[in-house]
Amino acid sequence: MQNNSLSEVPHVVAAERMGGVPRIELRGAEKCFSTRGSEVQALAKIDLTVRPQEFLALVGPSGCGKTTVLNLVAGLLSPTSGQVLYNGAPVTGLNRSVGYITQKDTVLPWRTVESNVGIALELHCRNVPASERRDRVARMIELVGLKGFEKHFPAELSGGMRRRVALARTLIYEPETLLMDEPFGALDAQLKLLMQDQLQKLTHMAKITVIFVTHDLSEAIALGDRVAVFSPRPGSIRTMRKVDIPRPRDIFNVRFSDGFSRLHEELWNELKDGIAYGTNV
Amino acid sequence: MSATLQADAATAAMPQRNSRLWKTPAVLTVLRLLIVAVVLVSWEFSSDRIISKFWVSSPTAVFAVFQLWVIDGSLWIHLGATLQAIVIGYVIGCASGILLGLLLGFLPRVQRIFVPFFSAFYALPKIALAPLFVIILGIGIESKICLVAVTVFFLLLFATMDGMRDIDEDVVESLEIMGATRTEIATKLVMPAAKPWIFTGMRLSVRYAMTAAILGEVIAANRGIGFLIEYNSGMFNAAGVFAAVALLVLFGVAVTEFLTRFERGSAVEKLPF
Question: How many CA atoms lie within 13 A of A218 on its CB side?
């Protein structure tokens, strides 16, 4: 029986099949935190490889190290042991080739929406002329559905809208890699689908590599080329599955496609075990 | 007083109920005038009948002194002197405090070396320095300006430095990942973040500036409202003392009113935080 969408790809095999340098690589990367005398192993030794332009989704319950993986790739944390490589070179200090959409709201409160969205383009390292900046900001604001709110301040927006501002200000400069930490969590179902659609179109067109963290398994399967299911305490990859649904995907109808429900069921069982374990602790 | 007048207007707009009748603006004004009248009349009556007018003077005498000051122009001279000391000292203090605060904020190592010295002087009541300023700068307006400037300087210095320190590391990191240089972090993040702190400092220090000027004049001066109080006290002119104090009260109310209106109208301070 041929199960197209259920091919499990061990990371070693995947690496061998890749030509060239993987965009991101974690080799035995482990992260421990010591808080108030006790050691917490946030991330057990994990191996992970991400191809250029791949969309990798990380799913799992809270506290299983998904955000730690993003922080390691971004260079905000360094691994307790093991290596974190970006384009073949170890990550030392802040990784400026990535765009990071964090869970925390870091939008500047004294700037309007359009001023916030355009901030990355103001920087010297990009040197975008003002007229071009205005156009790109306008297009990006429309893309995230905030048209009409250009002159508003973040304090006047809802939480979901502020997330979209954070999304827009990162997407606008099309970084080589995108790290996204539950960016669509605060959005309603319809808006979520719209944003997922926009995201996959944009990242495909601009050839952006993405690591996408989410609680929502459907979202992970709909968006990802591969889905990694995490298990908690200590965080580690329980399963990695390739999503064989062909691109470009129709986000609005993808869950009715053939392989989707099978993959969803299988991964859900994996996730469920992880969650049960978590609540027993 | 204006805030309560607004409250009065609001209650007047509401439908009247018997229990609310006593809150109407007309009734309140009448009650207040009544209190003033009672105080003045009892003061006038007790003056020289119950207590010697040497100690308490009387409303009529105080008013006469006031009239004299207005006529011979000395009211404006003294008022102007106090106002001048406050304004000039405030401007100097603000400018130097903010500039040095920004400088030290951007040079944390230098800041760490100097801050203990500044903290020591910050804790010192500047009034203790007033006689020193008089010795150095004389009895004229310069010593008052200096006193006000020093008071305001320390307030703004620490307001600025605290504002520059009060920055979320996560926000700094998010801009750095975007590719912002240290200078860009300074201009696009640190300075705008410090602005509300600086404005709060500017607002608070006006009242401290006033106190410093008046106290400086009381200690040693040849002009000003504080001087008037001290001078008349020294001359055992009770009427003069009361008149000067009344002038001070009016001055304080005027400054507060002006500030309230200025703050309300100033959109700059209405930061959406």
Answer: 14
Determine which of B166, B167, B168, B174 to mutate to test the interface with A (most A C-beta atoms within 10 Å): B174
Q: Which two tokens stand for residue A27?
A: 């080799």
ipTM score above 0.90: no
Residue-wise DSSP of B152-175: HHHHHHHHHHHHHH---HHHHHHH
pLDDT tens digits for A151-210? 999 999 988 899 899 999 999 999 999 999 999 888 888 889 998 998 999 999 899 999
CB contact under 8 A, A125 and B181: yes
List chain A residues with CB under 8 Å of B272: 109-110, 153-156
**Model's pTM, two decimal places?**
0.73
pLDDT for the residue B242: 93
Give per-residue pLDDT as tens, A203-246: 998 999 999 999 899 999 999 999 999 987 788 888 899 998 88
**B268 touching A, CB under 8 A?**
no
Asked which of A7-21, A91-105, B16-30 is least confident by mean pLDDT, the reply is: A7-21
DSSP string, B63-124: HHHHHHHHHHSHHHHHHHHHHHHHHHHHHHHHHHHHHHHHHHHH-HHHHHHHHHHHHHHHHS
CA distance A15 to A12: 5
- Are the CB atoms for B176 and B142 separated by under 8 Å? no
Q: Is residue B185 a contact partner of residue B178, using CB atoms and an 8 Å limit?
A: no
Candidate from A106, A111, A125 with C-beta closest to B174: A106
Largest CA distance in chain A: 60
Token pair, residue B153, equals 């300087």
Distance (Å, whole) CA B81 – CA B130: 17
Chain B residues 178-207 within an 8 A CB cutoff of chain A: 178-181, 184, 188-189, 192-193, 195
Q: Model confidence at B20, in pLDDT bands (50, 70, 90)?
A: low
Contact B192 A95 (CB under 8 A): no
Question: How far is it, in rounded angstroms, from Cα A114 to Cα A106?
Answer: 15
The answer to whether the Cβ–Cβ distance between B178 and A122 falls below 8 Å is no
- Which tokens go with A1? 């029986």
Q: Nearest-CA neighbor of A246 among A1, A3, A5, A2? A: A5
C-beta atoms of A76 and B173 within 8 A: yes
> Which of A67, A77, A108 to substitute to test the interface with B, most B CBs within 10 Å?
A108
